[in-house]
Write a structure and sequence with these properties.
171 residues; single chain; two-stranded antiparallel ribbon; Glutaredoxin; alpha+beta
């Protein structure tokens, strides 16, 4: 598994979204691109978390942060997640490969229930700065440990106001 370091170049990421192709290197955010990796349609915890993020998209935009949610689900399951979960503001990426998940240091699980896809990435949330460097890295091996996203726009503003550097950079 890859161990990513804050302050270094983010891994490449190119996925299809429900709105067309998306490539991290093509993004030009004012401050950050927030990439939220989620487990997929089968995950009820993801449903709540993605719904919360969907409701905060405008708040993230106010602090110059663009948001995308990505899973290993195929297009049909991504479309169902968007519809069933009411994700009307959130850009949804799908078809993440296992190799891409590992490049981002994500944990990968095999299904234990029929509703789960055969293989899926566990959660991760990343902030990538406008230069393409990793700023914030939050990775979990379980669906239950997620960051407090409601407070994140305010914390991003604090970081911007105080020129707060990425932390955890000592190798």
């Amino acid at each position: 598994m890859t161990r990513l370091m804050p302050g270094t170049k983010a891994p490449a990421l190119e996925v299809d979204t429900l709105d067309g192709p998306w490539k991290l290197s093509d993004q030009r955010p004012e401050n950050f691109t927030m990439i939220v990796f989620y487990r997929g349609l089968h995950c009820p915890v993801c449903k709540g978390f993605m719904g919360e993020i969907n409701g905060l998209v405008d708040e993230f935009a106010k602090v110059g942060t663009n948001v995308i949610a990505v899973s290993m689900d195929p297009k049909e399951r991504a479309e169902q997640s968007k519809a069933d979960w009411g994700l009307d503001k959130l850009k949804i990426g799908y078809g993440l490969t296992e190799a891409q998940a590992r490049d981002w240091g994500l944990y990968v699980s095999e299904s234990i229930k029929d509703a789960e896809t055969e293989t899926f990435a566990e959660p991760g949330l990343f902030l990538v700065d406008a230069k393409g460097n990793l700023y914030l890295i939050n990775i979990s091996n379980m669906p239950f440990a997620r960051p407090d996203v409601a407070s994140l726009p305010g914390k991003i503003q604090f970081a911007l106001d105080n020129n707060y550097p990425p932390r955890g950079t000592k190798a």
